[in-house]
Write a structure and sequence with these properties.
28% of the residues lie in helices and 27% in strands. It has helices at residues 15-24, 46-65, 81-86, 89-92, 161-165, 167-174, 219-236, 284-293, 319-330, 366-377, 390-398, 412-415, 436-444; strands at 28-30, 42-44, 70-73, 94-99, 106-108, 133-136, 139-142, 152-155, 180-189, 204-214, 244-248, 261-268, 271-282, 299-300, 307-308, 311-318, 331-335, 341-345, 356-360, 382-384, 404-408, 417-422, 428-432. Helix 2 (46-65) packs across helix 9 (319-330). The structure holds adenosine-5'-triphosphate.
């Protein structure tokens, strides 16, 4: 794990602490762990899948459901191979790569600062690098029984290409008119030369992408609109203001067809890094697919009768990167007045994998406490725990970000009340049993 320049790292804990919490509590761990894992592939456990699902649901809510000008899509991971010729990926989607002749390790030529010393050379710790070569990042597979060139296909490197190829079908079936957008959440695959920084750079990951189709005269307006919307989304997730920034692309970084692009970046322990890109893609994609498929993807304005190829504003966010940023943003090792340390995940309640934990003070109170948990479970992801002392049970919930714990104690049977404890301030309140759902509703359903 490269932790860049410690002077620039604002976090008073080590990334390895968070990685180990994620494995220990079942958020994220290496895939095929019993076989030693595979570099760049991760599994999300019971808490991780809830966290990711919450994040995806919030994105879908904001980007698709709350708008009448955006439609959803769930396309196949394998597209027609011509798709990737049209998109330019077969020719250009590559990173510069070098090999070390001594230790046989492979590195991205633009990230050699992180290469570390060569373990295999005598008298020097410097690597013996080959010349730079281009390495195509698309993962290949074969369709059908033969493995010849005609059967080659690719696992998609980004989810957006099928949005372009499905453009006409979605537009016609949904009766949308430009300006409108198509959104999709799904897996993408890149054969990254050097997967690293936990899930940040993986070979299999999830993207949530929106392609918004517009008239060419409205590029600036819609670019500004979507950049603002997406900033608002990240602020809503509760990122600390000082750890989130927008970095506009320089003229040299812009693709030849692009008018503007900006990255939304988060300050990780390993530096400022992109979690989302907002791009003006011009009419590049629809034109290329028109050219390669021979199918016309232009539109006609019904009022003015103008015929044009729509331009595209894209927002593309990594679900795994944002989930990692949320974990980093929320992780805290807090010194308590009694000298103890508690580990805390300050997750936004909309994102927390468990919304409420029900804890009977004693196993003797299991029956009514379970009844309460059963009732809450119908609305919220609820965890029931009756083992261990109450302090330890609170700590176990704090470190996975559960916003509320409800304790059923020996008084509850007579006064009909339970104690609700809030995660961050650790305040405790007596609430009537029948009032618990409303109490949680007021505090948990602010956003969704
Ligand atoms: P980078 O420069 O970091 O490789 P990129 O500019 O190639 O990223 P895009 O192609 O714009 O990324 O993809 C959009 C989003 O998809 C990124 O902002 C990121 O959140 C996510 N993403 C891209 N590559 C990866 C990866 N290897 N692992 C996890 N998420 C990724």
């Amino acid at each position: 794990m490269s932790e860049a320049d410690p002077a620039k790292n604002p976090y008073p804990w080590r990334m390895d602490d968070l990685v180990s919490l994620c494995a220990r509590r079942g958020f994220v761990f290496p895939t095929s762990e019993i076989y030693g894992g595979i570099n760049g592939f991760w599994d999300y456990g019971p808490l991780g899948v809830e966290l990711k699902n919450n994040l995806k649901a919030l994105w879908w809510q904001r980007v698709v459901r709350e708008r009448d000008d955006v439609e959803g899509l769930d396309s196949a991971i394998i597209c027609h191979p011509r798709t990737w010729e049209a998109s330019g990926h077969v020719e250009h989607f590559s990173d510069p790569m070098v090999d070390c002749r001594a230790c046989k390790k492979r590195f991205r030529a633009d990230q050699l600062d992180d290469a570390g010393p060569c373990p295999a050379r005598e008298g020097t710790s410097e690597h013996d690098f080959t010349d730079v070569r281009r390495f195509n990042l698309m993962l290949k597979t074969f369709i059908g029984a033969s493995e010849d060139a005609a059967a080659v296909a690719y696992l998609r490197a980004e989810t957006c290409q099928s949005i372009f190829t499905d453009f006409r079908r979605v537009k016609d079936t949904s009766r949308q008119k430009v300006p409108f957008g198509i959104a999709q959440i799904g897996k993408a695959f890149r054969n990254e030369i050097n997967p690293r920084n936990f899930t940040f750079r993986s070979r299999e990951f999830e993207q949530a992408e929106l392609e918004f189709f517009i008239h060419p005269s409205e590029r600036e307006r819609w670019f500004a609109h979507w950049l603002e919307e997406r900033k608002r989304f990240h602020r809503e997730l509760g990122f600390h203001a000082g750890r989130l920034r927008v970095r506009p692309h320089t003229a040299q970084e812009l693709a030849h067809y692009a008018n503007a692009a900006a990255d939304i970046e988060f300050l990780f322990p390993f530096g400022w890094q992109e979690i989302e890109g907002v791009h003006d893609r011009g009419d590049w994609d629809l034109r290329r697919h028109t050219e390669y498929s021979g199918k016309d993807l232009s539109v006609t304005d019904e009022e003015t009768k103008e015929h044009f190829t729509p331009m595209v504003i894209e927002t593309s966010v990594g679900i795994d990167r944002t989930a990692l940023a949320l974990l980093v943003n929320g992780y805290e090792e807090q010194k308590l007045p009694d000298g103890e340390t508690r580990t805390l995940l300050r997750l936004h309640p909309a994102i927390s994998p468990i919304k409420v934990a029900v804890l009977p003070l004693s196993k003797k109170l299991a029956e009514p406490a379970q009844r309460l948990a059963g009732e809450l479970r119908r609305r919220y992801s609820t965890f029931y725990d009756e083992s261990g002392n109450i302090g330890r049970r609170y700590r176990r919930q704090d470190e996975v970000g559960t916003p509320f714990c409800v304790t059923y104690d020996f008084e509850s049977g007579t006064d009909g009340k339970v104690t609700v404890r809030e995660r961050d301030a650790m305040t405790q309140e007596r609430v009537s049993l029948e009032g618990v759902p409303a109490y949680l509703h007021d505090r948990l359903e602010v956003v969704l």
